[in-house]
Amino acid sequence: MDFKQFSTKSSGTLLATMCVDWSSELLREYMADVEVRAAHNVLEACAQTETIEKVVFTSSATAVVWREDRKTMELDLDERHWSDVNFCRKFKLWHAMSKTMAEKTAWALAMDRGMNMVSINAGLLMSPDLSISNPYLRGAAEMYEDGVFVTVDLPFLVDAHICVYEDVSSYGRYLCFNHIINTQDDALRLARILTPDAASSLPQREECGKSFIEQRISNKKLNKLMVDFEA
């Protein structure tokens, strides 16, 4: 992939690294390297295009939440935290590993070239084609138990991208989600979406307990930026 292919006369760039099919485990680490190279090449093209004023890099909340110390941290996870690549590799969290590596590559190049870049670290996108095969869902049970299993609706994600691009005060990383899966009802609703063919075998809502898991992840930074945002 040649970065020159991406050089265009434009004032801004919204960058979403590619989503790949992780069906073959032998390809996963290789594809992480491909995603890193893709991020590097697009950022390189942006750096060489004088008319680009700001880059919005679409990353993932999985580039934040997977750390060895996540269960013992006193503070909630937020944009200041990064997933541990070695931890991700150890537990085969390939989606989180690739998103973390690609985003770190993008930030390194942006800082080296003095580019104005912000990143959106999105939760699980609740799209119409969401299925159990979505790579974000690797480790879903652990994210649920840790209070960091977050989702985002498409309209909110789009608004967040527009907001951070247009607002001159935006900077750094932004965790982006508008719902957290932290009750059994939440988990059951998601399970029905992910496995519609098995919906009849899932427990009914009245059979679920009332357990509530404390939220341990914060999107206050984005919420503050979007207070006065009008779509």
Write structural notes for this entry.
- With 231 residues, this protein is of the alpha/beta class.
- The strands form 2 sheets. It has a 4-stranded parallel sheet, with helices on both faces.
- The protein is built from 8 helices and 7 strands.
- The longest helix is centred in the N-terminal third of the chain and has 23 residues, at 25-47.
- The mean pLDDT is 88.
- The protein has one domain (18-225): NAD(P)-binding Rossmann-like Domain (Rossmann fold).
Structurally, the number of domains stands at 1
Low-confidence runs of at least 5 consecutive residues: none
Strands of the biggest beta sheet: in what spatial order? 1-2-3-6
Share in β-strands: 5-15%
- Net shape: globular
Q: What structural class should be given to the helix and strand makeup?
A: alpha/beta
Main sheet attributes: strand count, strand direction, barrel closure:
4 strands, parallel
- CATH homologous superfamily (4th level) name: NAD(P)-binding Rossmann-like Domain
Share of helical residues: 25-40%
Radius of gyration: 18 Å
GO molecular function: oxidoreductase activity, acting on the CH-OH group of donors, NAD or NADP as acceptor
Keywords: NADP, Oxidoreductase
Domain 3-beta hydroxysteroid dehydrogenase/isomerase: 17-105
Organism: Arachis hypogaea
